[in-house]
Amino acid sequence: MTEMTETAPGWLAPEELEAIRGRMPILYVDAVPVRVDESGVVTHVGLLLRIGTDGQVSRALVSGRVLYRERVRDALMRHLEKDLGPVALPRIPASPQPFTVAEYFPAQDVTPYHDPRQHAVSLAYIVPVAGDCRPRQDALDLEWFTPAEAASPLVQQEMTGGQGVLLKQALAHVGRLP
Questions:
Q1: 4, 11, 49, 135: which sits with the fewest CB atoms below 10 Å from its CB?
Q2: Which InterPro entries match (predicted)?
Q3: pTM of the predicted structure, to 2 decimals
Q4: What is the dihedral of CA 104, 49, 134, 29, to 10 degrees?
Q5: CATH for 134
Q6: Which of 147, 25, 34 is nearest to 84 (CA)?
Q7: Are 139 and 6 within 8 A, CB to CB?
């Protein structure tokens, strides 16, 4: 999960966010950007390359908080644009339904998902993108993997916080888990 300071209405000051994180779950969205062929079959999965606050380089999904009074659809668009650039051309359905709900806990081993800062509930989506993706903000790069490559132990070990598990669930959901 990534954080950025924004000035949009509904954004919390860092000290407010810290206080709230200690008292209640925070709503997030996770997006698995994919390329699909003309028949809608997933051919590639896009993974971001990031440097974490601990200095570790890892692969990640598009992820971020849903702001107060922000529709989930708008949060998805905002985070996809923030991480993939303004011409990624994500295709979010008219009525987006998550493929799963991931519950991140500060304590490890409660669920496969871990975020040391907080208890977070994330609605996870598979989002086809058709445009030119150029990572922005804190993403160093975006690399496209075939489903087999994305599910490989090498790529999985580069993902943190359980996002590798989430990626495999996404691949299984679209029938592309090798």
A1: 4
A2: DUF4916 (IPR032582), NUDIX_hydrolase-like_dom_sf (IPR015797)
A3: 0.88
A4: 0
A5: 3.90.79.10
A6: 34
A7: no
